[in-house]
Write a structure and sequence with these properties.
The complex is a heterodimer of chains A (393) and B (399). Chain A is an alpha+beta fold. Chain A is 37% helix and 21% strand. Chain A contains 13 helices and twelve strands. In chain A, a hairpin with a 2-residue loop joins strand 2 and strand 3. The N and C termini of chain A lie far apart (55 Å). The chains are: A alpha+beta (393), B mainly beta (399).
């Protein structure tokens, strides 16, 4: 049996909402097999022909099948999620058109099963919003530390409003505490940036690199050649083994590993700080070690507008040869497995030949977090570097 | 209205099967013109506004029209990863159904654009919605899901951090899409029944936002795939190369085609003839001073129309590309113009809809409407109606 965290007050509240419930009806014949067919879809249209027929069976069910379908999302790949979601919407639309509302209590029960698929839980929440908006509104504060980012966002927005109201009322102390509580809970970058700006204006400091889990301290080896963008596929020495004391023939002479510490609040690691002449058609490497407290699944999240590759513990995770089309925090999400103790992270960063002013950046921002975006901090994580200290270096 | 001009226009206007559908970006075969004798609204004014409907998210995609229904895509959410496909009644704008999906591919775009940039397509029985995340959803006209593909899920480096925007076409039983970018760049033909690859061909590794156009007579259609390298003609059912124009082309404005002649945004504007039997490409003319801006050119009867980057509408003679007249419109423009036999409709970024009467010796802007919202998407045309969308609303002009 799955562990459940049920918010009893919330369930009691939901059961008190007087709404008509759908008439119970058995799932249509073949429902389980049809659902299994939807769950079996895969890349390159695998299972699509069968799923198309199975979808009709699943979508012919009524509201009694909502929870089984929501639960099935926990077993679904991203493609199957959309098949099931579409069937759910069809069922709900048909029932609502017939004057039958889904059971809010049942949906609430599912909503508070925190181990269920986050998107399924968000879907359940939005069904409650659709059928009983007042009930949904009352649930939002309880979602502040929910493991589903999709649900937490509304609660962060709600708490931010409370903070703003306190500030408007002249209670700066309460406002500050509420804003700080909100930013601690926030996982969406836009909310974090907005809350940080507000807190900064109030004279409060937020350790953003730590909040995100950005990796700030690196060893950098550059430049190797990237003429004609050939460096992306060229295997330079760090790709076969990192030796921090070694010297190598680089593009413009002998090169060795150098320290590069970022003081950027959003963890930007800027190679141009080591090469202020804004060199072009070059390749470089950044290396760091991450001491994990336990073996666990994690995500590497990268923002980068240069071509790049990443290795973890010597294994190539992903690479992309796109230049200067834009970057943002968490642009690329890569699942990894951290091993207990030392993990090595190697980033290859290629700069191309373009000369426009918007092509000078040679940088990346990389963080380690869980699938919700919550930072995973290394045991060997040093204190967040201050801009002054980095400038002196 | 000059009756002689109108008669000439009607005489020269292409003849197509009667249909009120506007099934994909820039209408049937991607020409930007109504092929069924549609009249469009007489004017773009508050008086000709039939209805408007609220939208749940952003979008640059055009509405498409199938029968009495209008289909539109949107994207929403802090990461623009919630993908919407909505069906409206053409008559009154009532929302008939609304499906939402989760993106399986990357959703980052330049802030000016969004994930709902490509226009959906229809074969009259199904709707094919594609997004910048390279997710494709095929539904029937009632919103029942028939199949889905995640083309970035399948091919993980197929994406553009500025956003994708190429709109697909459907020819017989093949859905054709250009998934072109700096990294994993390809074009694909999918089986309309299952979404399975019928073919997949490598394309130039370069960002490209242009849309395919259809060339040639019914039953012998060729799909013209445009890129910075030029334009490749392929058989829609197999992806086999038929001809190759290799003198470069724009990566935003798409080509226009009529019959077996393509009018390409290439070195200005270049007209070339490309037969469907594998014959070589024959350049007919080139006008280097005719440079389409972001919007695509359109051809209508014996004339072509090009809006350049300065917002000037140029009318050209199709036989040699010589300019006939030009007028300055209220720009700037991200979208493409569309036209009936007598009127051209275009919407500027600031939201000014402009109706140009094409029947005189020179074009005349005969009506305007200020929608007071940013318009980046190309309008659509069906019967007496023009449809256009913003991030917030879908409007129908023509009662």
């Amino acid at each position: 049996m799955r562990p459940r965290r049920v918010f009893l007050p919330a369930i009691l509240f939901l059961t008190s909402v007087c709404l008509p419930q759908s008439a119970l009806r058995a799932a249509p014949d073949g429902f389980d097999q049809a659902l299994a067919t939807l769950l079996a879809v895969g890349p390159e249209a695998k299972g699509n022909a069968e799923a198309s027929a199975a979808w009709k069976v699943v979508a012919s069910a009524d509201s009694e099948s909502l929870v089984p379908l929501l639960e099935a999302m926990g077993e679904a790949n991203p493609l199957a999620l959309n098949w099931i979601r579409s069937a759910l919407e069809t069922i709900v639309d048909r029932d609502l058109a017939a004057g039958k509302s889904p059971s809010i209590a049942t949906l609430g029960g599912f909503l508070f099963e925190v181990t269920q698929n986050p998107r399924a839980r968000r879907f359940a929440f939005e069904l409650i919003q659709r059928s009983a908006p007042n009930a949904a509104e009352k649930l939002i504060p309880g979602l502040l530390n929910d493991p589903a980012v999709e649900l937490r966002r509304d609660a962060v927005a709600w708490l931010t409003k409370q903070a703003a109201d306190a500030k408007t009322a002249g209670d700066e102390a309460a406002a500050g505490l509420l804003y700080e509580q909100a930013i601690r809970a926030a996982r969406d970058v836009d909310q974090i940036k907005e809350l940080n700006a507000t807190l900064t204006k109030m004279g409060r400091t937020v350790d953003l690199p730590r909040h995100f889990g950005f990796l700030m301290e690196w060893k950098v080896l550059a430049p190797f050649d990237n003429t004609g963008r050939a460096g992306f596929d060229t295997v330079y020495p760090p790709e076969t083994g990192v030796q921090l004391e070694a010297k190598y023939p680089g593009k413009n002479g002998e090169i060795g590993w150098q320290d590069l510490v970022s003081a950027d609040p959003y963890g930007m690691v800027d190679f141009n700080k080591l090469f202020p002449d804004l060199i072009k058609e070059v390749t470089g490497y950044a290396y760091t070690e991450f001491d994990s407290a336990e073996a666990r699944p994690a995500e590497l999240r990268l923002g980068c507008k240069n071509a790049w590759k990443i290795w973890v513990n010597g294994k190539l995770i992903f690479g992309r040869d796109e230049y200067h089309r834009g970057a943002r925090i968490d642009q690329y999400r890569m699942p990894i497995d951290l091993q207990k103790g030392k993990n090595t992270i190697l980033v290859k960063l290629c700069q191309n030949e373009q000369k426009e002013t918007w092509t000078v950046e040679w940088q990346f921002q990389l963080r380690v977090c869980d699938s919700t975006g919550t930072a995973i901090l290394a045991r060997n994580r040093p204190p967040t570097p201050s801009p002054d200290a980095v400038a002196k270096q | 209205m000059h009756s002689r001009s109108l008669a000439l226009l009607l005489l020269l206007a292409p003849v197509f099967p009667a249909s009120a559908d506007w099934p994909n970006f820039r209408g049937p075969r991607g020409t930007g013109i109504a092929e069924d004798g549609a009249t469009g609204p007489a004017a773009l004014t508050e008086e000709t506004l039939a209805w408007s409907s609220d939208l749940p998210g952003r979008g640059l995609s055009s509405p498409i029209v199938v029968g009495d229904r209008v289909f539109l895509t949107c994207s929403s959410g802090p990461l623009q990863d919630r993908l919407h496909l909505i069906c409206f009644a053409a008559a009154d704008g009532k929302k008939l159904w609304h499906r939402e999906y989760w993106a399986t591919g990357r959703t980052m775009t330049h802030e000016k654009t969004c994930v709902a940039a490509p226009t959906p397509a229809s074969d009259g029985k199904r709707v094919f919605a594609i997004y910048s995340s390279n997710d494709v959803f095929c539904t029937d006209l009632d919103g029942n899901l028939l199949w889905t593909r995640g083309l970035t899920y399948d091919y993980p480096n197929a994406s553009n951090s500025l956003g994708m925007a190429s709109s697909p076409v459907v020819i017989d039983d093949t859905f054709v899409a250009q998934i072109e970018n700096d990294s994993e760049s390809f074009a694909v033909g999918l089986d309309v029944l299952t979404g399975a690859n019928k073919w997949k061909i490598d394309r130039p590794k370069a960002a490209n936002w242009t849309s395919p156009v259809v060339v040639g007579p019914a039953g012998q259609e060729i799909v013209a795939l445009q890129s910075s390298k030029g334009i490749l003609g392929v058989v829609p059912s197999t992806g086999s190369e038929v001809w190759n124009y290799s003198e470069g082309a724009a990566t935003m404005a798409s080509s226009a085609a009529f019959g077996d002649i393509i009018y390409a945004p290439s070195n200005g504007l270049t007209a070339f003839k490309a037969a469907s039997n594998g014959a070589s490409v024959e350049q007919l003319w080139r006008q280097s001073e005719q440079r389409p801006g972001t919007g695509s050119p359109l051809v209508l009867g014996d004339k072509g129309y090009v809006i350049n980057g300065a917002g000037v509408l140029n009318a050209i003679r199709l036989k040699d590309g010589e300019r006939l007249w030009r007028i300055r419109l209220k720009g700037p423009f991200s979208s493409s113009p569309i036209a009936t036999a007598t009127h051209l409709y275009v919407f500027s970024e600031p939201g000014i809809g402009q109706c140009v009467d094409l029947t005189g010796a020179e074009g005349v802007v005969t009506s305007e409407v200020d929608l007071k919202e940013t318009i980046l998407g190309t309008p659509s045309l069906s019967g007496n109606a023009v449809y256009v969308r913003s991030d917030k609303h879908l409007w129908r002009f023509g009662k």
